[in-house]
């Protein structure tokens, strides 16, 4: 570990919110540090087709888009730091951060730590992680060529993963706890079309009861199906389970430091600017970490921009 490194502004996170904040802060000559965290590039690294990033009408992969954002920030002199922050002290000034590799202080901070996949909470799920249980179809789908897999969830991610997998594997069993999917219509239309290939089987009102297998691989899934008369249990042959039941904001390290609601960092949302300020002046937050509702790349980038503008104004007020 080196000496403590001080910067006017430090940005936590290398997703769309973090990189956008870095681009704006760099252009304001604030010479920011951007600390990447473990998941370099953020959630979009898990998708191979983005079709709603304005201007990129030919579709773009998540890793290509994030690579371009990275290059853009670096070209404008953002210093990219490969570290993961494990604790913070925002009661001190300058604000204090402890990473796995170094310690840092900053006059202003932008938190853009996004979110991580939610898990079902089963013991068997922990046991089979990396041995058949995955949260990323584009990363792991390839391993299940000609095999049967299951996807759990009913949002955009679950439907996208089901569609993606159905082009690779033998069969996809899509398990959703409700009756209606919350995914967007365009994806549901594609799902309806793809069902005709008989490569997708849908189980509604169904939950995963247990993941079964040997010591090294998943072999079956036990699911519980509710219907109006009685509950029924089904055992399905699968080699892989893809969990796509949403994301939990990465805010554990801020719990005793900042005001939060349902795990998301609260921002003041002032109509006269300073939208992204948290409960502590000088600490700003952007992207999925503040967003209960929209959670898109474009909305994350937009709030990253606002956080950079808000922090620039804050830093000027200190002069
Ligand atoms: P994230 O992308 O979650 O990035 C968070 C960053 O914070 C990561 O780099 C992580 O390493 C870092 N970090 C976390 N903890 C720490 C720490 N302690 N210290 C330092 N750094 C830390 N949206 C769309 O608009 N279009 C799409 O097509 C689309 N497809 C998607 C497909 C999938 C499979 C998923 C999961 C999401 C998709 N989304 C899509 C949503 C989009 O990815 C998110 O809304 C967006 O990535 C959020 O950006 P963010 O910068 O807030 O956070
Ligand atoms: P989401 O929209 O929060 O959906 C989560 C799904 O998982 C819901 O269907 C939910 O069921 C189900 N679920 C939650 N907890 C569960 C549990 N314990 N057991 C079983 N099922 C459970 O999450 P997401 O699909 O990952 O999307 C996250 C965000 O990223 C969204 O804002 C989404 O729009 C965005 N995104 C966008 C795109 C795109 O634009 N193409 C692609 C992917 C993601 P209920 O419906 O019953 O609550």
UniProtKB/TrEMBL annotation:
Signal peptide: none annotated. Homodimer. Binds 1 FAD per subunit. This is Thioredoxin reductase. InterPro entries: FAD/NAD-bd_sf (IPR036188), FAD/NAD-binding_dom (IPR023753), Ferredoxin-NADP_redctase_2 (IPR050097), Pyr_nucl-diS_OxRdtase_2_AS (IPR008255), Thioredox_Rdtase (IPR005982). Keywords: Disulfide bond, FAD, Flavoprotein, NADP, Oxidoreductase, Redox-active center. The keyword Disulfide bond applies.
